[in-house]
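Service request form, structural biology core

Requester: graduate student, group of Dr. S.
Request type: structure prediction, single chain
Budget code: on file
Notes: please return the result as structure tokens.

Sequence provided:
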Amino acid sequence: MQPERQIVNTEKIAARRLSLEEVTKLGVNDRIFVSADTAELKLPDCYVPAFLTKSGEDFEGGSITARTAFQEEVSCLPDDENDAGIYLADDNGPVTIEVLQSAGVVLDLALFVPGGDKGALTALYAAARQAFGADVVQIWRQGLKEVPDVKVDIFEEQIPRGRKGGDSPKRDRRAIDTYPTRADFIDFSAGWKPVVEMHRPVVDDTPTI
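Core staff response, request fulfilled:
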């Protein structure tokens, strides 16, 4: 007899399904479990750890939105019998659910390698493989570009409202960096826009004794 092939790595946990009323009492830090099904990958009867994107007390009707541990947003209908529902871990829970485990992480980094030629990158990958094991570190996507040796200031500037020509917009500095490789990765505040300028060191003209 052929052994059953395990397609996904799951953990069985005792749980109970939450009603809509119970979900509305949850906060964004409460760990829940939602269906692992996505548009790209169907995983029937599997669940993943997740958190509500906003407190349940702010529910205004329709579906509840949760963000999974794998950074995917899903919509749930707790009281709909045809929906997978929302579960909470409970040692005395009436059901056992299969919870999908993490196989690892994908690093999405802006990595600056000074003087980064082919030899430096080869050494970098070799060190990663030595740390985690041969054939474990896989390079799926690689974008390389040289950057000029220029220092820049990265600001966020408040987007003006109303008529033009009023007060100067407010500005906060977010970073000093070599040519703006990092600006693409900074989360700027709502109502603010990024501004990148040549770095000019602050000169203190105060006379000294």
